[in-house]
User: Fold this.
Amino acid sequence: MRLDGFGLLVEDMGKMIRFYRDVLGFEIKEEENTSNVYLVKDGTLFLLYGRKDFEKMTSRRYEYIKGLNGHFEIALYVDTFEEVDEAYKKAVENGATSVLEPELEPWGQRTCYIADPEGNLIEIGSWNKSYETKDLTEGC
Assistant:
């Protein structure tokens, strides 16, 4: 099996589309007025499913956490420490909830956490190197 993408079950489709598209730069692949919306970020498929539509399709009811959701995070990478600060500021100014302001961690990563309008955690971090070289270790 190959990872094709990942999805979120959402309550307010319009608000979530606008946040991921306009604030975080995800590319929308079709019209907003559908129950399943496909977005793409850096080649990764990101799906938004309407909760009610998903429940109808599966003939089940689900429990949904209100407020901040600590079950998982979406991790986004930027190339520089300065970009962490800029992305955090832009996201909070445009409706994200601040969870952790940008800080330099003891392991050398600058990171911050925000939450989307429905409380899903998003990390924005950097090792102060390009995405292509961030996982390369010296001496390999």
Summary: The chain has two domains: 5-58, 69-126. The helical segments are 13-23, 51-58, 81-93. The longest strand covers residues 69-77. Residues 16 and 56 are 20 Å apart (CA to CA).
